[in-house]
Amino acid sequence: MSTTMAQTFSDIIRERHSVRKYDPTFKISRDEIEDILNDAILAPSSSNLQPWRFIVIDDQETKKELRLIANNQEQVETSSAVIAVLGDKEMYRNIEKVYRSNYEAGYMDEATMQLMIENSNRLYPNVPEEIRKSIAAFDTGLVSMQLMLAAKAKGYDTVPMGGFDKQKFTEKFQVSDRYMPMLLLALGKAAAPAHKTTRIPLKDIVDFI
Prior knowledge:
- This is Nitroreductase family protein.
- It comes from Neobacillus mesonae.
- Keywords: Oxidoreductase.
- Belongs to the nitroreductase family.
- Residues 13-189 form the Nitroreductase domain.
- This protein is of the alpha+beta class.
- The protein has one domain (10-204): NADH Oxidase.
- It has helices at 3-15, 30-40, 60-69, 74-78, 95-104, 110-123, 129-153, 166-172, and strands at 52-57, 81-88, 157-161, 179-188.
- Strands 1-2-4-3 form a 4-stranded antiparallel β-sheet.
- α5 runs antiparallel to α6 (110-123).
- It is globular and about 55 Å long.
């Protein structure tokens, strides 16, 4: 990676802050949101099974209704869109699709594809649901962080929200029992600077052995 690229990425990381005040008149097109999501879904996942799904809420009236479900958080209504990130606890249903796609793209031969499909089908459907939920939660954390950085790289702001009524969300948006609402992510243009925060010094949280 060139020094310029490294500095640019470093700037994105340092400039990303959780923003709660948004310009309600600023709208991000669905094409741009799709671009951000296409960058986000390049995140890693367990066995590449990609146990995530997204609901993008950009209709103003629907956002008002969602605000009530999300503890009346203002940014739900004033941001350009809210992206709900869902975890797929039945990620094993993606097995054949994922590995066949890799085969068709030329990333693995047919024998490897068949072996990966067989091994994954022996493993994942038989893993206890609590473990699959944990895998999905971990992987949705990875894709959510990548989503926030992808948005910042395009000049947009975000804030992740775990504080919402997941049962009411599930009912409102008719979410299948296969999926777990993990977080809501407000996306838009900041109307006021984010509150700066500090971090625990690295020397207090790392050991080199």
